[in-house]
Amino acid sequence: MAPFSKYNRNSKTMASQKITTSKAKPLPPGVYTPVITIYDNTPTQQVDLDAMYKHCQYLVNAGCHGLVYLGTNGELAMLNHQERIDIVKMARKAVTDLGIPDYPILAGISAQSVAETIQLAKEAGEAGAAWGLLLPPSYWTKAINPKVLEGYYRDVADASPIPIVIYNYPGVVSGVDLDSDIICALASHPNIVAAKLTCGQVGKAIRVTSRYGPQHMAVYAGSADYLVPSLVGGASGCVVGMGNVFPKTVSRLYDYYKAGRLNEAAALQEKISVAEAACKKSLNSTKWGAWYYILRNLGIESDAGFAMRKPYLSPGEEQKKSALAAFSILEDIEKSMQGREGIFKA
């Protein structure tokens, strides 16, 4: 990477013409599933790598275009360094065993300090991640301003061995929200290649895509319930937690749109938006749904390992019932779909 001082920090000085030059390793387009972390049924809730291996291969076979580990759905904040390394190694082995060693895998590398984040980026790269997903710092919000945020991302990107994907999710970082000016300013860095916008602001996505082509700075929706509007606005895809439950359906929504099958895309978008309400209410619902619809059919008989890590509580019967009520709209659709034709089968 070039020295930090060489990058333009002022988005207002950027050329008004759309920049379409390709960076060294852009993030491929499509639907990415931010994979849940599965635990065993012990008091210490050890990571169940065997179950996660089965889940990983199923998601790939179902047609997901890429996978994200150690994100919000993966409970990054609840995992130690070694667990993070082990999970990424497991994922890379799982896709390699399927005969696709270069399959896109991202890993969350978020931490509060630049020093630890760089360490996590290096560990993730060594373990097999090809890109790093990075939240902004949030520990002392009174001291956080645009200069701090830009400096944080640039410092990490300067030292990271893997390209950085900006992760904007105000709900998990004390309300810190990266606006389009900051994202556009960071787009000048050669090792920052994309942004995942879980803020739900489609207008923000359009402001970025209006200035940069996807090979230079791609934008991904952070939820499937606004995937089609985001694609219309120039987004490259989405990272969607419901992919843990219905990977064929959410991947097919993207495929329909890209193939010009707009009526089918619109109809499926409506159903996905209804079902995704369960995922938005609780990560427990997503995790339990993954067990109910996928993992119990792969030999995982108990749902005990699909609760969030303590101190969070396990889902109660009413929550499970509510999740099933929302998910049911996609159950038959998912069953009717095949894996990715010509490459994968599910």
From TrEMBL:
The keyword Lyase applies. It comes from the Eukaryota. SUPFAM superfamilies: Aldolase. The keyword Lyase applies. Residues 7-23 have a biased composition (Polar residues). The active site is at Y167 (proton donor/acceptor), K196 (schiff-base intermediate with substrate). One of its GO terms (molecular function) is 4-hydroxy-tetrahydrodipicolinate synthase activity. InterPro entries: Aldolase_TIM, DapA-like. Pyruvate binds at V239. Coiled coil: none annotated. Keywords: Lyase. Residues 1-25 are annotated as: Disordered. Belongs to the DapA family. This is Uncharacterized protein.
